[in-house]
Structures are given as structure tokens and as C-alpha cells.
Amino acid sequence: MLRRMSDCLFCKIVAKQLPARVVHEDADTVAFEDIHPQAPTHVVIVPRKHVPTLNDLGPEDEAALGKLHRVAAKIAQDRGFAAEGWRAVMNCNRAAGQTVFHIHLHLLGGRAFGWPPG
Length: 118
Ligand code: 5GP
Ligand code: ZN
What we know:
single chain; HIT family, subunit A; 5-stranded antiparallel sheet; 5 strands; 20% helix; 21% strand; binds guanosine-5'-monophosphate
């Protein structure tokens, strides 16, 4: 499990040390196209700050978490499926399928989604 910043794939994307199709960036967040999209839109939105999992959040991270969701809603609006509906997912640790240990919000849109998720 890669928990150190120096090994972190998403820290490297944030630092522009690895390429990604960035669709939004601001002082707090970077959003980019997922490399294995699970829907017509599959964007990953990450805080610039390295936090490995949702279990590691501190009170100082509360605003950043809200920001991830506001960025997702803006992208959904821009891409025209905000009213139809979309999904925001954050996986925490192994049982939920987390594979990159830098917290990220998945924005999935452009199709209908089942519930409960698998
Ligand atoms: P998790 O499984 O941790 O919730 O989500 C990690 C996501 O990152 C997956 O959807 C995976 O496809 C995506 N991903 C993994 N490596 C890369 C990469 O190098 N570039 C991009 N753009 N996405 C990646
Ligand atoms: Zn990181």
C-alpha cells in the first residue's frame, strides 16, 4: 500500500511529474480523466494535499472535502448531465476497492447507475 507522498501516483499528477488529462485545477484541487473510465464521464478529483484515506482526515481537511464535491457538480453542469443525475464515489481501503492511497472523488456521469453498488 503506497502511503508515502514520494510514492504517490496522484501527488505526481498534481505536481505534473506524470501526465494526465486535467479537466480542472484550482488552488485546492486537481481533476483529471480516469485512465480506465467506468462511464461516459469518469473524472477523478483530488485535493492537492496528500491524505491517504478517508480514515486519515483531520478537521483541517473538511473544506477540501466540500470543494471536491463542488468541483464535481461544476463538471456535471458543464457536461450537461447535472439535472439528469450523476454519481460521486469515494472508496476507503481495500474492501471498498481503493487502489490509490491519496483520497479522491470519482465523478461518474453520462449513464444510469444501479443501487446498491457492487
Ligand atoms: P480507487 O480504486 O482508488 O477508488 O480509484 C483509483 C482510480 O484511479 C481508478 O479508477 C483508476 O482507473 C485510476 N487510475 C489509476 N492509475 C491512474 C493513472 O495513472 N492515471 C489516471 N488518470 N487514472 C488512474
Ligand atoms: Zn498523494
